[in-house]
Every structure is written in C-alpha cells, then in structure tokens.
Amino acid sequence: MLKGISLDYANALRRICLNGIPIFAIDSVDILENSSVLPDEAIAHTLGMIPLKTELSGIDEPDSRIAFVLDSWDPENVKIVTSAELESKDEVVKPTSKQIPIVHLAPGQRIKLEAYARLGRGTEHAKWNSANISVLTSTDKKDGYILTVESTGSLDPGHIIIAGIEELAKRLDEFKEILVNLKEK
Fold first, then answer.
1. Domains, in order of start, for the chain
2. What does the pLDDT average to over 94-109?
C-alpha cells in the first residue's frame, strides 16, 4: 500500500514498474543452421519473447551481453524444442521456465544458433517489460493507493517496486536539475 503520496507520483511509479525497469531479453540471434519450417526471423522473435531471470544488483555495465546457445535435433522423432535446451553462459540470466516452446522439428530437422541478451526497458520494446500488469487502485483512506504488480518472471514484484522507486527518484532529480539549469539561463 502506498500512503501519503499524490496520485501523480503513485501513477508515475505504476508506469515505471510496468516498463521502466531494465531486464535482460534476447536481442540478437545468429542462426547457424535451421532446417525447420519456421523462418529464422520467427525463431529469433520467439527467443526474444522468452522471459529471462534478471538480477539488477550484480550488473556492472549497462551494455553487458549474455550469450546463449541452442543445438537441437532428433534423427527419428518429431521434437518440440523448448527453453530447457537454451543454454546460458551466465549462472543467473536464464529462461524463467524450461517449458516454453521454441520450434517443432520433424525427424532429421535441426536448429543450431547463438543468441545474445542485453539489458533494455519496456519503453524500447515489450520484450523488456518487467511486469505484465501494473495497476493502481484507490483505498478509502486519503492519499492511499494499492499498487498491484504482476511480474513477467524476470524480477519478483518486490524488486520491481523497489527498483521503480529508485528510478522515479532518479528521474525526479534529473528533472529538478534541468529546471535549475533553465532558471539560471
């Protein structure tokens, strides 16, 4: 529950929680072999939409990239390639679920690729949204609001709200500095 803040600030926090917190998502894919019926672009898009576990505290560089590899085939059976086969080169940044389907392969078909994830924000593309839902509701008390955040799985809701508060404070400080600079001119 949010108490003692204006609706404007509460709504700004809600919006930041939805798409203003950086998370990892696959952004570039190098297809080495694809004999499936899906075109390379469809596979790359599917990989980009797989939510990846993110820990903001361990990230030093905003431009850091995490590599993933996938090499899957079965000579005799139909196979559903899932996110369980997407191997991360990082101990933390991995798919949030091992059951996300990527592509169906017929017997003898193969998919082999390298993918790279980077930090981004949902304002750039939906694959970087930290939350699926961010809703603000009023309470009976004056200046009381309930902020409900449903995570994509990359971060837990508590971390999203804390990171949202830090991001809002940073943006307000930057805005304040801009106003001071305008006043001085």
1. 2-20+130-184 (3.30.1360.10), 24-121 (2.170.120.12)
2. 97
